[in-house]
């Protein structure tokens, strides 16, 4: 593993004095929701059963209808200490940033943060498992380590394998973990003082992009098979239910747009290489053209590029 970058070194300085034997890190949870009142209620009820409990739970609500927002706010009010925020309604990354910024401003004593969508149920020992793993690490590693568990759905439920992002932007099994399974993961909260979610990505592979930036700064990803969650609505996201447009769902459109944006950003800023960037673009558009042609959806090529905001991918910040 590479040496920690300058920002990571600054984060490590926080941990230098060490921790007492009964070290009790505090965990925050950012819950993103939109248009699913009952699902949010189940998510919060499940979090309330965790032992130890999260020190802070923040719900950021992207629901567009006032009636739904009012219902979600009532659900949150039924759980003491849980914070409700109206979301920015600019995509899931902006919604997560809305929640984590609150954590940074109002919970400076929280050490770690997790992100769950409203349809995710973490296991009751989620934070106990994370605490035990972090406590087993040398003190200087605790602030530079991200934890990830296994898959939250599918035939490989809870299988915890190292995952990387391939050259063309797909998840593949690797030798060392380069990406987290977002809904079974724990991040150092300090990471988000300098690396927020990229709001140019409306949806799709955004967790891999954040992981790549964190690794570049000297953070690391540890596998923790006992860190588990369950997706109660696999394939049932609000974008999947938005209906198809000329052969593609809104979910598929945004995933392809994100793959273009992340690929260019990766090879322009995160792992700079003009030759690799050019090769990525050549392969990406070749594959995309075939993908759209098979679905009789070539009319979606320009919208995908427009949605991707790829012209912003080479800009720092």
TrEMBL record:
Domain (Glycosyltransferase 2-like): residue spans on this chain: 29-130
InterPro entries cross-referenced by the UniProt entry: Glyco_trans_2-like (IPR001173), Glycosyltransf_2 (IPR050834), Nucleotide-diphossugar_trans (IPR029044)
CDD domains named among the record's database cross-references: Glyco_tranf_GTA_type
Gene Ontology MF terms in the entry: transferase activity
Keyword Cell wall biogenesis/degradation carried by entry: no
Keywords from the named record: Transferase
Keyword Transferase: yes
Identification of the protein by name: Glycosyltransferase like family 2
Organism: Paraburkholderia phenazinium
